Amino acid sequence: YFVRLCLDKILLQCILQSRTLSGADAINALRPFYFAVHPDFFGQHPKEREVNENSLKRLNGYLENLQKPGFRSFKPTQLTFYVREREPNSSNVQEPFSASGFRAVSFTLHTRDLLSTVLDILNSCSLSTEHVQSLNVNSQSHKEAKSTVNRPIKWDKTYYSFTGFKDPEEELEQAQRVETTLLSWLDDNEASAVKKLKKSLPLRKELERLKIELSHELQLSDIRWQRSWGIAHRCSQLHSLGRLVQQRPEILENVKGRTVVFTDRSGMSAAGHIMLGTMDVHHHWTKIFERLPNYYKLQKRLLLLEDRISQLLGGIQVIYIEELQPLLTLEEYFETLNSFYNKLHDSRLPFHPRSLRGLQMILESDRYAPSLHELGHFMIPTVCDPAALQWFIFAKAQEARENLKRKEEMMITEKELINTSTERFSLDRLYKEPSVSSAQMIDCCKRLLEESLPYLQGMHLCISHFYSVLQDGDLCIPWNWK
C-alpha cells in the first residue's frame, strides 16, 4: 500500500506540473482582469477605487502564497471588485450595478494552484479565457476551473482517513457553512498581526520623526497620503522630500502653512493642497514648487468664483469634500466651476438673496440629476438643467438643514465612541477608511464596546468593509462584523 501511495503521489505531481502556471504566466493571463478593475481608472469614483485597491492587495497576497514552496494552509478568500464595462447591458451576469454604472462582482477564492485561480477570476468577471490557451495549458483545466473544487484527481475518502491529510472538499464546505465571526477571525489572525506590527515599529517611529522634522522645517500644516501605502513606502517618500529640501531650499519658501499630499500626480489639488506624484522624479517636484505663486493666484480666482455661484444660488455654499469627490487638480476644478457659473449666469434663476444661507453643495461631473446626500450637502451635476435645479433645491432645503444638523451630532458621537473604544481596548490607534460612513462607524463602535476583546491591546484597528491583516500589522475588520 505504501509503494502504491508513493506512485500515486508521483503521478499526482506530474499531472499538477502539466497544468500549473508560473507566476509570470499568471500575471499575463490576468492582464484583462487588472485592466478592468485597476484603481487608476476609477479617478472619478473614489468608493469603487478604494474597494478595488483593497481587493487587489488581498488577491496579490493570495497569489503570492500559492507560489510559496510547500504551501499548505488553506483559507477561502472572498473578494469584491467593481468592473469597468463598455456595454453593461450586454452582460449576461446578474451582479448589481453601482450608481456610477459599474458592475459589482463578488467571488470566493478556494483553489490551490495558479491556473485554477486565474480561470476562476476570469470566469467570475465574465472575461474571456481563450488567451490562457496560449500558455500551453491543458484545455481540460477550463472545465475543472468551473467545478466546486479544482483538483486533477478526486481521492477516495479512505485516503484522507488513512494518511491524516485534510480533505479540501470538507474544508471548503465547512468554511462555507460557518460564517466568519469577529472573535474567530481575531483568534486566527492575532499572532500574525502582532508579528507584523512588532516588525514595523522601528519604521513607524522613523516615519513619525521624519514627518515632524519636515513639517517643522517647512512650516507645513500637515503631510498626508492619498492611498494606504505601507510604512516603508511612506518613509522613502519623506526621505526623497528631505533630500530635495537639502538640495534646493530656496524653492520651498512658499509652502508655509500648506498641506503636502503624496499621491499619483503632481500639482495643486482642488482643496489647495500641494500634490507630489510618487512616480515623479525630483525635477517634477521642483517645477511644482516653482509654480506655487501662480497656483495661489488661481486659487484666489477659484474662491471668487465660488462666491459668485453662491450669490446666484441664494447663499448656498460651494464646497469640495476630499473623501467623497475625485482628486481633482486646481485647474480641473476651476474649469468645472467656471462652466457651471456661466450656465447659471445665463439662466438668471430667481433665488432670493441669502434664502439658502447655511446650506452646502458640491459639483459632480459624472451625474445627470441632482440629489441630497445623507450628510446634508446637495450633489449637483455640472450639466443639470437650471430650472430642475431650482425646483429640487427648494423642495429639499428643509431636509438638507435637518441632515446637516444630524451630521454635526453624529460627528461628535463618532469622536466620543472612537476615544472610548481606544481606551477600553487599549488600542494604539482606531481609525476608519473614508468609504465607511459616520453612521456605520458609530454602529460598529457601539457593538464593539459590548464585547470583551483582549486581542486588541496595543493594536492598530481599521474599520473597513472586509477582514484583512495589512502588511504593517494593522487589523482590518468590516464595520458590520458578526
Radius of gyration: 27 Å
Share of residues in strands: 5-15%
Mean pLDDT: 81
H/E topology pattern: HHHHEEHHHHHEHEEEHHEHEEEHEHEEE
Beginning-to-end CA distance, first to last residue: 46 Å
State the shape. globular
Counting H and I runs of at least 4 residues, what is the number of helices? 15
Instruction: Name the strands of the widest sheet in spatial order.
Output: 3-4-6-5
Based on secondary structure, the structural category is: alpha/beta
The total beta strand count reads: 14
Q: Tell me about the largest β-sheet.
A: 4 strands, mixed
Low-confidence blocks of residues: 11-19, 87-99, 136-152
Helix content bin: 40-55%
| Total discrete domains | 3
Pfam families: DUF4460, DUF4461
Protein name: TCAIM protein
Organism: Vidua chalybeata
Domain DUF4460: 17-127
Please supply descriptive tags for the structure shown above.
15 helices, TCAIM, 482 residues, four-stranded mixed beta sheet, alpha/beta, DUF4461, 3 domains, globular, 49% helix, DUF4460
What does this structure look like?
With 482 residues, the chain is an alpha/beta fold. Helix content is 49%, strand content 12%. The protein contains 15 helices and 14 strands. The protein has helices at 2-18, 23-29, 31-37, 46-66, 114-124, 140-145, 157-163, 168-177, 182-218, 231-247, 282-290, 292-312, 330-347, 386-424, 438-448, and strands at residues 77-83, 103-109, 222-225, 259-263, 267-268, 274-277, 317-318, 360-364, 371-372, 378-381, 429-432, 460-464, 468-469, 475-478. The protein is globular and about 85 Å long. This is TCAIM protein.
